[in-house]
Fold:
Amino acid sequence: MSTNSDRNRNRLEVYNTLMLAIATLAVAWCSYQGNLWSGIQTFRLAESNKYGRLAQQKMIQSGQNKTMEEVVIIDFINAAYDKDKNKVDYILRGLRPELANILSNWLQLHPFETDSAPYHPMVMPEYEALMEKRVDESKKMGDKGEEMFKAAQEANLNSDRYGLLAVMFSMVMFLGAITTKLVRTQPRLVLVLVAAVICIGALIVVFFSMSVAHKG
Structure:
């Protein structure tokens, strides 16, 4: 009888030792992954802020460009209306090619003689397309910033989950340590079974549900 009891106790100690070893490795792994995901979150937040600033800069720059273009276009219209070819050519030479082409195309429509021509260059389809392009550039930066923010949130969630799993494996280690101090077999068996259920459940989550971060 004593032999069977000793044999069961020894078997239980082996199982408990194996479980403690697995839990120790799992705690180290979860802590490592938690730190990696925390770092990823920091970098993604930094990128989100960067793209957010770029989006604002693009929008401000677009508004400033439009204000300056309005002044130039008014001056261009006055010169064209006065048939001041030298001033018209001078203005066109000083503009960016895309805006110069828009003004030239508008002038070729003979707006002062043709009622169907656009009233001024800023209602030309080409100019509206140019403004949409500027807005799209800002929107792309904003969308990229939002994408990085969502990635940071996901990294934060993964870091928190790995932290929780590390706590669960630490609980397994705690229960296993208590088991070694107990004398009676039945309480030891109960604690080992409870620890095993927690350990197996946490391992299933780690292997099948958790994303793995890679360094570098």
Summary: The mean pLDDT is 89.
